[in-house]
Design goal:
With 505 residues, the chain is mainly beta. Strands 2, 3, 4, 5, 6, 7, 10, 18, 20, 24 and 25 form an eleven-stranded mixed β-sheet that branches. The chain is elongated. The protein starts with 7 loop residues before the first helix and ends with a helix.
């Protein structure tokens, strides 16, 4: 829905909240919370997802989960700058997938983690003042930063090509999700724009804030506001928005409004209201001083990790290098599981090699309606074999799982969101009818062949404690043949929306 812009004069009387605030208070509070929560990720702090074609039908996705942000403001009203620091929580997730020949969708074939031992972060700087602002919408509950001009980026070592992904993503979107807020009581505050700008030539380095209903909002800050002292902050509230001010009562959302520009519970209302201008009342706030002994959110320790985390092969595939992080010359390597492949050592390096062949050889039904001929089950116990490589350093253990397709999959698994969960379905291409068809739910057997998740009869996937799982779906309508599909589900390693984007194609 579009809205006609309001006259600037009218906007001055339309601010729901107006006030000035010392820059150092703003920066210190964000820094303090960042030290405590910067490495936390609850799914409410945002993420970055990049999907790109590698060659022909092969794709790579890069997923970054972001920690709690730190905002820092500087400027004098003419050259204002806002810097946002974000930690990358859990490392860089890289996934590779292949498109099916005739079906819409992709099979995830490789999942790897990079930089999980911590320390990955980046800084984004944007031109601020009236060239950047915050917005809150109760429709999804998120506070977001918006900006007009291209952002600048700096990063810690180890990000490699990811810094370019960040640049491309944020300079295309010109918005960053910061965090999730509680919903306000006042309906007018459900969709608001928060403008901010530094005051020029002032020793205290004050910032001016103005909160406007989003409809018709523009880039303008208040020209009037209640004055405040160094130790107190005074917010001005509009009685056309907060009507209980006229009865001498404080706004119900008096403390919630602080969360529009600072972390929760940073300041609390102590007194007011007092009328200071036509339709405007002031309320006095004092800081909730953070505990000096509050625990900090340390960067994750160097948890042992094998790359890749999981991979799918065809019989006879080339061997792949196994990388251990952090590197350890005294690591003990063991091949577990069905042990159909090989664990090879060459110098200081270890490799996994998929099985060259499986005995007895599969026999296929070439007189089939399927695009890909199914193998008969009579001499083939399963269409896949699973190996697991284990690396041990002292008391630390890491695993990597490898699933080999003994025969080609005839079907493809598709994924959709069902509430907050993933719902799997099984599809195939009928060459005689020349169209895609879905296997009815009641005719599918689901197996989690690697990982500790589970799939219900209805196809609802529930993850366990492991970051990804390999799932096989079997079409049971012809029990003489292996009619099946498989994929790695990198969930909960990635968010559900990104998993759907990756697999659905």
């Amino acid at each position: 829905m579009s809205h006609e812009p309001m006259d600037v004069t009218d906007l001055q009387s339309a601010f729901a909240v107006e006030f000035r605030f010392i820059q150092s208070y703003f920066n210190i509070r964000w820094e303090w919370v960042f030290e405590r929560k910067g490495w936390e990720s609850t799914g409410d702090n945002g993420s970055v997802w990049k999907l790109r074609r590698l060659v022909e039908n092969h794709w790579e996705g890069v997923f970054l989960a972001l920690g709690y942000p730190r905002l820092s403001y500087s400027g004098d009203g003419t050259n204002d700058e806002l810097q946002v620091r974000r930690n990358i929580v859990g490392g860089i997730v890289r996934v590779q997938a292949s498109e099916h020949v005739n079906l819409v969708g992709r099979e995830v074939r490789r999942v790897a983690l990079e930089g999980r031992d911590g320390g990955l972060s980046f800084d984004m700087k944007v031109r601020a003042g009236l060239q950047a602002h915050l917005e809150y919408s109760a429709s999804d509950g998120y506070l977001r930063l918006y900006w007009d001009n291209p952002a600048e980026f700096e990063s810690s070592s180890g990000l490699g090509d990811v810094i370019e992904i960040l640049k491309e993503h944020y300079n295309r979107e010109r918005t960053m999700l910061l965090r999730k807020l509680k919903e306000p009581f006042n309906s007018t505050m459900r969709d608001v724009r928060i403008n901010m700008q530094a005051l020029p030539d002032n020793n205290a380095q004050y910032m001016i804030f103005g909160v406007l209903p989003k409809a018709g909002a523009q880039a303008v800050v208040p020209t009037k506001f209640p004055l405040s002292t160094v130790s107190h902050v005074v917010l001005g509230f509009n009685d056309t928005v907060f009507t209980n001010l006229r009865a001498g009562r404080q706004p119900v959302d008096k403390n919630w409004v602080i969360s529009l520009f600072l972390p929760d519970d940073a300041w609390r209302c102590m007194s007011g209201p007092e009328k200071y201008a036509e339709n405007f009342y002031s309320c006095d706030y004092v800081t909730n001083n953070p505990s000096k002994v509050a625990s900090e959110s340390a960067a994750p320790s160097a948890e042992l990790q094998i790359t890749p985390l999981s991979q799918v092969f065809a019989v006879g595939a080339q061997r792949i290098l196994l990388t251990l992080a952090p590197a350890a010359a005294n690591a003990q390597w063991v091949l577990e599981g069905e042990a159909r492949g090989l664990l090879e050592k060459e110098g200081a390096d270890y490799y996994y090699k998929a099985p060259l062949q499986i005995e007895p050889e599969a026999v296929f039904n070439n007189n089939t309606e399927l695009l890909i001929a199914p193998a008969y089950r009579a001499n083939l116990q399963s269409p896949v074999r699973v190996d697991k490589v284990k690396a041990t350093v002292g008391s630390s253990v890491a695993y990597s799982t490898f699933v080999t397709h003994i025969v080609p999959p005839t079907h493809i698994i598709r994924v959709a969101k069902s509430g907050v969960q993933l719902k799997l379905s099984l599809w195939y291409y009928n060459g005689r009818e020349k169209k895609e068809l879905q296997v009815p739910e009641g005719n599918i057997t689901w197996r989690v062949v690697a990982g500790d998740g589970r799939v219900s009869d209805e196809g609802i996937f529930t993850p366990g404690s492991e970051p990804c799982n390999t799932v096989v779906g079997i079409d049971e309508r012809n029990q003489d043949e292996w009619r099946w599909g498989a994929t790695i589900l990198p969930y909960p390693l990635m968010h559900a929306d990104e998993v759907v984007s990756l697999i659905q194609g």
